Amino acid sequence: MSHFPIPVTVLSGFLGAGKTTLLRYLLKAEHGLKIAVIENEFAETGIDTQLLGDGPVQVMTLANGCVCCTIHGDLERALYLLLERLDSGEIAFDRLVIECTGLADPAPVAQTFFVDEELRERYILDGIITLVDAAHAEQHLMQAIAQAQVGFADRLLVSKRDLVDEATFEALSQRLTRINRRAPIRVVTHGRIDLAELLDVRGFNLNADLGPGLTARPLLPVRGSAPDRIASLVLRSEQPLDIDKLSEFMNELLENHGNSLLRYKGVLNITGEPRRMVFQGVLKLYGFDWDAEWREDEPRESVIVFIGDNLPEESIRAGFAGVTA
């Protein structure tokens, strides 16, 4: 049986950031979509606790056709159960949203859709969305796991914007951009936001879109506190790259720092090749492909964005400098 892959959105964010409020809005909105939501047992409050019991996996179809699922165990088990009920006609959905716990690392969730072959065929990871509580961000971001949630994100949604002044919000925006140069920042109001910011993000597609974060205005230097552990590193070169040296550089980088590379993506100009090379990865899992040809009226600049945990910036820049042909 052939199937179109089901787009999956991973919803992350620290405790109290508003994930459940956003999910309630998503489930109740009259959008005409059939969305399944997997919620784990550590959520601050259940989406619909009066409907869902306390078994290992409970699935309930809501009035508007959305499907709510709570899990008290393995994520893969819930994913397969949803597929079984979908294939049998018991439930119907064409999108999936997974809510991570406030203290959860998004990495294992993302890796699930790359490691398991059947899940890779039936689901496609569309994007990781992270909610940031503006009123408590400074406290939350003292913890490395909260920084990691920001670093993994394809979109950053700031909640409780009305509780902070303009200067505080601007400082937070600068900090979030230093951590993650790829992810645009949006404001969510009481769980409400344009669904286009949540769905069809295509954050894991192999294409030449590096994200609008790279075109942001220059960032102000960090003042009054130590830099965050998680940070973005952007490498650029106007010289064409030697593909063999590039392979050696990436293999060494992944061998030495693969577990510290949260997200990375590059659009590269390879010597003797009219097409762009595009690659991206999560930790040690990555893929690459050839994109469209470079236009005659555009500069052939190679750009790589790494988002990582305490990366040795100087040695990485030195290694990349040796890749130019």
Question: What would you say this structure looks like, in words?
Answer:
The protein has 325 residues and is an alpha/beta fold. It has 2 domains: 6-213, Rossmann fold, CATH 3.40.50; 229-321, CobW-like, C-terminal domain (Hypothetical Protein Yjia, Chain: A,domain 2, 2-Layer Sandwich), CATH 3.30.1220. It has 9 helices and 13 strands. The longest helix has 15 residues, at 243-257. The chain is globular and about 60 Å long. Mean pLDDT is 86; it is low at 48-54.
Short overview:
With 325 residues, the chain is an alpha/beta fold. The protein contains nine helices and 13 strands.
Could you state the oligomeric state of the chains shown? single chain
H/E element order: EHEEEHEHHEHHEHEEHEEEEH
Give the % helix: 25-40%
- Give the strand tally: 13
Specify the biggest β-sheet: 8 strands, mixed
CATH homology superfamily of the largest domain: P-loop containing nucleotide triphosphate hydrolases
Structural class: alpha/beta
State the helix count.
9
> Any idea what the CATH architecture of the largest domain is?
3-Layer(aba) Sandwich
Rg estimate, integer Å: 20 Å
The CATH topology of the largest domain is given as Rossmann fold
What is the top-level CATH class of the largest domain?
Alpha Beta
- What gross morphology would you assign? globular
Mean pLDDT across residues: 86
How many domains, as an integer? 2
Walk across the major sheet and give the strand order. 3-4-2-5-1-6-7-8
Task: Enumerate the spans where pLDDT stays under 50 for 5 or more consecutive residues.
Answer: 48-54
Distance between the termini: 47 Å
What portion of the residues fall into strands of 2 or more residues? 25-35%
Protein name: GTPase
Catalytic activity: GTP + H2O = GDP + phosphate + H(+)
Domain CobW C-terminal: 230-324
Keywords: Chaperone, Hydrolase, Nucleotide-binding
